[in-house]
UniProtKB/TrEMBL annotation:
TM annotation in the entry: 74-95
The entry's keywords: Membrane, Transmembrane, Transmembrane helix
Protein name: Uncharacterized protein
Organism whose genome encodes this protein: Paractinoplanes atraurantiacus
Superkingdom to which the source organism belongs: Bacteria
Length: 101
């Protein structure tokens, strides 16, 4: 079964942030983020080249890192939604829309 990595990355970035925010337990949000990264990463390895997988992983981790300073400029929700959209779009274009091998 093909897992839609665009949905996984967006949901784990948004869900991880929301869980950390609502519970006050940042490691719990990090666990959601890590689980989403592992699930998406497994699919990227199966569907794409090592270079594309590395680029998508860097985009995912970079989105998490960028969301923090971006939130100071535009707010938390807009920041999380923006980085999630960019990451999901990259995942879709580079991994999800391709036909299975």
């Amino acid at each position: 079964m093909r897992v839609p990595t665009a949905a996984v990355t967006a949901a784990s970035l948004i869900g991880g942030w929301q869980i950390a925010r609502s519970t006050g337990v940042r490691p719990l949000g990090g666990a959601v983020l890590a689980a989403g990264g592992v699930l998406a990463g497994r699919e990227w390895v199966r569907r794409t080249s090592p270079a594309v997988t590395a680029g998508l992983a860097a985009t995912y981790v970079g989105a998490f890192g960028l969301s923090h300073p971006l939130a100071k400029r535009i707010g938390a929700w807009p920041s999380v939604l923006a980085v999630s959209a960019v990451t999901a779009a990259a995942s879709y274009v580079l991994a999800d829309r391709k036909a299975p091998r």
